[in-house]
Amino acid sequence: MEALKTTAVIGIGNTLMSDDGAGVRVLEHLDGLPEHVAVVELATGGMTLLHHLEKYRKVILVDAADFGGSAGEVRFFTPEEVSSIKTVGYSLHDLDIMAVLRLASQLGTHPESVIIAAVQPASLEMKEGLSDPVEKALPGLARKILEHAV
Amino acid sequence: MKEININVEHLTRVEGHGNIVLNAKNGKVEKVMWEVSEAPRLFEAFVRGKPYHQLAQITSRICGICSIGHTLASLKATEAAMGIEISPQSELLRRLAIHGENMQSHILHLGYLISPDLFGTGSVVPLVRTHTDAVLAVVKLHRLANEFSEVVCGRTTHPTNLIPGGFYRTPSPLKLKEYRQKLLDSVGTAETVAGIILDNAGALPAFTRETEFIALTAEDEYALYDGLIGSTDAGTYPVDEYVKVVNEFVVPQSTAKYCKNKREAFMVGALARFNLNHDKLSPLARKWAEKFGLKAVCHNPFMNNVAQLIEFVHSIEDSVSLIDRLLENYQNEPRPEITPKAGRGVGAVDVPRGILFHEYTYDDEGICTAANCVIPTNQNHNNIQHDFEAFAPTLLDKPEQEIELNLEMLVRAYDPCISCSTHFLKVEWKR
Prior knowledge:
The complex is a heterodimer of chains A (150) and B (431). With 150 residues, chain A is an alpha/beta fold. Chain A has helices at 22-25, 49-53, 97-107, 132-149; strands at 7-12, 37-43, 58-64, 74-77, 113-119. In chain A, β1, α1 and β2 form a beta-alpha-beta unit. Chain A is globular. The two termini of chain A are 18 Å apart. In chain B, β10 (343-351) and β11 (354-362) form a beta hairpin. Chain B is of the alpha+beta class and 431 residues long. In chain B, α4 runs antiparallel to α6 (132-153), α7 (173-185) packs antiparallel against α12 (304-328) and α8 (187-199) runs antiparallel to α12 (304-328). Chain B has helices at residues 43-46, 52-59, 67-82, 88-119, 125-130, 132-153, 173-185, 187-199, 242-246, 270-277, 283-291, 304-328, 376-391, 400-413, 418-421, and strands at 3-8, 18-25, 28-36, 162-163, 166-167, 212-217, 228-231, 235-237, 266-267, 343-351, 354-362, 368-374. Chain B has a 4-stranded mixed beta sheet with strand order 8-7-6-9. A 3-stranded antiparallel beta sheet of chain B has the order 1-2-3. Chain B contains 15 helices and 12 strands. Chains A and B meet through α3 of A and α5 and α6 of B.
């Protein structure tokens, strides 16, 4: 079964740091995914992102990111469109997605296509639960992820 | 004569936060210190009042790298306290779990954190361009170790399959066969990595300071999951008497406690295990020990890196033979049923960074009333400090940057997990 999965939706973030967990929490909203799509809860898995990238042709990375939008705003873009994206939450498992993607390119394990689905956080406090605007954004974010995954 | 003032705040390529301080004047070291500044973790207080079946789940969160080890030490402590026996099959599976974690942790340390020291780069990133095949080999082995841990434990980190009395869910025999083959296929890759490290092992300083080594030891296996407490100075002790071996004490420069036994300090970890148990290594692991010229008792702490590599090879080979034993008569065993009872128990396992102890006391409803965890890095801090005191004076002729690098490499050789090692204490300072 696993071998048939060619696309992955990978949720990144720390659910103990409020909106930083949006990339993980949105995975709960992904109903009716096609057979070929895997869901990966990377959370704070750091460098192990590298291990997942090499398994799929297409990867959608979902993460909270500060792109200067309004709280709960959602943006889809490719890594080529930005100069740097750093996971906004601070933790020991802090992950520079662009660095890992560059590493994967150099190692020849980069997927054919990478899309980043970002949501603008309102709060990065150390607590469980998302802020209202981000929580409300999740169903719409999930629908868009589904469109990109098909 | 020159004055040397080194102050490394938040040493990189280790887990957690530690500082290095060196002040020297006129060729004399005035102060050299390994400082641990991280906040205490309070896990021993968290678990008080919690039911026995939650303890391994909670204490596995002490660490994201050795969470399998904490789970196993915790389960063994609970099982010892309540007199719970586990099946021979569960014992074999737990041995696979500890190999999985050993492989994960060792390859991460060697491949990502130590290789930059061997090649003289600041991080692994430049190596991707200059040593692409080596980095690919490391990534491949790391991925295999992670997946193997997931197969056995349910998750790579914070395992879900391991519960008091045995397993919540056992891996399917098909998966075990699949990973047996993958492990066999990885031997070539592991030897490639070993060869590269051997070619660059000259970068490891030839420093020795005699010390005591402590690790689990057993008559019939290279002890990781079970055994007696072994010392290169003092024979063996029952696990139950660990407090008399670790002798924790408090120093002003550290939020982590220090330990000592027969000498001023002792060392735990892969080198300690090698020094005590080398004759039980798998054949290929023994071959690589010979190639590196590693002989017991080795007192060079930098060789801990080499011992980790040798253990990596051992864990591959031993896992294959454990899977063979398992598959001879693999059963779908029922989930264990536990009747809680009052008691005190100690669990010890030898995890990537060394011997780990958990001790719990339960009341007759299986509620934890007291806990103590003694973590390997904790036991090593004192030895690191004594190494510093012996090593620093030999470095003073070198440029400051090189002195700093050498001291950093010394700490990294211990593969410290500083976050794990800080635990809270009630103290009155004696100055």
